[in-house]
Amino acid sequence: MEPETENKISGRTIALISIAAVFVLFIIYYSVMMMLSPGKKYSEIRKEFGIDSTEKTRMDNPVFSDSTYLKLLKEKAFLQSRMIMAETDSIYLTLNLSDSTAHLEISGVSVHEAKFSEMETSKIFIKGDENLILSLMANPFTIAKDWATIKKEPVMIKMAPKDTSEYKPDIMPDTSVTEPVNYILEMTDGTRIYVCQQENEKPDDRRSQLHFDREYRIRDAWSCMKSILHFRIPDYHLFIKIYLPRSDAKIIYRAIPKYGQVGLYR
User: Which of 2-11, 116-125, 178-187 has the lowest mean pLDDT?
Assistant: First the structure.
């Protein structure tokens, strides 16, 4: 009986070791694929917006790396983007990352300004090739879809009274004034703009933000897992995350059209 028992124990041990080894190998494989993801995205940007060899030779001139020249290029790219958006005759959003301001504009005129208190961005925006990023920002981004903790267009259903004797004024409090505001704007090229309210005065505010973060992280993790299981490098999404006052965040979200445009300046 003892040899049989030892064989069973050995078999279980081998099975556990095999499962653990497969799990460790998968974690290593998953980690490597995730590390390759930003590089893949940068290569795609370089392929679409990079300069050819002739232009590269010209850009090697020290003048083109001068800080004053680059500042002028930034302003030119931003103005070009705003001009394109102004021609649509629709409201659009501009984000100035250098002075931490967000503007709602229409036909080149700012109709609302908000200051964001914090900002996080992809390293590509900060440390990437200057001319490459400027080429990327020279055209506006177009919103493809969004996720939010508030409704885009709040709707109130009311029953019309038969006559004046049945009329009752609205006594329902406006909960939208205090409801947590967090949303994601995803562009057609995959770039994401995360807007979070900067107030965390009540437990509901923090809980709502954590729940919202968890939902999109789970969604992203599942999308990455599907790519990895099909032996594909997952898509990397460039991102900008800003924290705005609740009222400003709500105004911006509800003012931008469903497939609106966004201009960036850094």
Answer: 2-11
- What pLDDT, in 10s, does the model give residues 198-236? 887 777 788 888 888 888 889 888 989 999 988 899 999
| Domain ranges, ordered by start, for the chain | 2-265
Q: What is the DSSP letter of 148?
A: E
Of these ranges, 25-34, 53-62, 63-72, the one predicted with the greatest mean pLDDT is: 25-34
Contacts of 237 (CB under 8 A, 6+ apart): 41, 186, 190, 191, 192, 220
The Cβ-side half-sphere exposure at 61, using a 13 Å CA radius, reads: 8
Q: What is the DSSP letter of 136?
A: H
State whether the Cα torsion 110-248-90-124 is positive or negative: positive
Which residues, at least 6 apart from 234, have a Cβ–Cβ distance to it below 8 Å?
Answer: 33, 34, 37, 223, 224, 227, 228
What are the E-state strand segments in 70-158?
A: 92-96, 101-106, 109-115, 118-121, 141-148
Tens digits of residue pLDDT in 238-249: 999 999 999 999
Q: How would DSSP label each residue in 49-81?
A: H---HHHHHHHTSGGGG-HHHHHHHHHHHHHHH
CB 81 within 8 A of CB 75: no
The pLDDT of residue 207: 85
**What pTM value is reported for the model?**
0.80
Q: What is the pLDDT of residues 49-58, one digit of tens each?
A: 776 545 555 5
Q: Is the Cβ–Cβ distance between 73 and 134 less than 8 Å?
A: yes
CATH class of 2-265: mainly beta
Which is nearest to 81 in space by CA: 143, 134, 144? Answer: 134
- In this structure, the dihedral spanned by the alpha carbons of residues 242, 247, 252 and 253, taken in order and rounded to 10 degrees, is 90
